Amino acid sequence: MAGSVVAERPAGRSRPVGARSKWLGDRAHRVIARLYIDATWPHLVQCHRLPERSFHSRGRQLHLCARCTGLSVGAALAVPLAPFLSLDPSWVVAAVAILVIDGATQMAGLRTSTNPLRFATGVAAGSAVGVAALGFIVRGGWS
Q: How confident is the model at residue 57 (pLDDT cuts 50, 70, 90)?
């Protein structure tokens, strides 16, 4: 057909260039959609779910805000991280304090937080509390 543009396939490739990254992106979106967009479990969590403080995937809002998403990811990371991290309570307090300071200064109107910062403080606090809780349960106390 004259004037049509067709993606060329390099020798040995069964898909056009860029098809794999599109496939991976579609696959990642399906996983995110099942876990956070279409799932019912996030509704059990107390979260304000404000659209401007939540992540979006292909125009659809995730059910948890960025901070609660970070807390969930951090708690999930706690299981593989637990054997490699110490149980010193001071780093747990520090991680939670950073999260509280971020939220409190934003709520007081002293500054505006961003979703990446909310997510990062959530991951730090979620993993710190998760690792401490797992260690506390396994070891029967602080070591």
A: confident
Contact criterion met (CB below 8 Å) for 86 and 131 = no
**36 in Cβ contact with 64 (< 8 Å):** yes
What predicted TM-score, i.e. pTM, was given to this entire model? 0.64
pLDDT of residue 88: 75
In a domain, residue 11? The reply is: no
Q: How far is CA 112 from the centre of its chain?
A: 20
Say how many domains are in the chain.
1
Give the position of tokens 């990811």. Answer: 73
- DSSP H/E element including 75: helix 66-81
Contact assessment for residue 71 and residue 130, using Cβ atoms and an 8 Å cutoff: no
The answer to whether position 6 is within a domain reads: no
Tell me the residue range of the domain where 32 lies.
Answer: 19-139
What's the token pair of residue 73?
Answer: 């990811």
Q: What angle do CA 6, 7, 10 make, to 5 degrees?
A: 135
> Number of C-alpha atoms within 13 angstroms, CB side, residue 107?
6
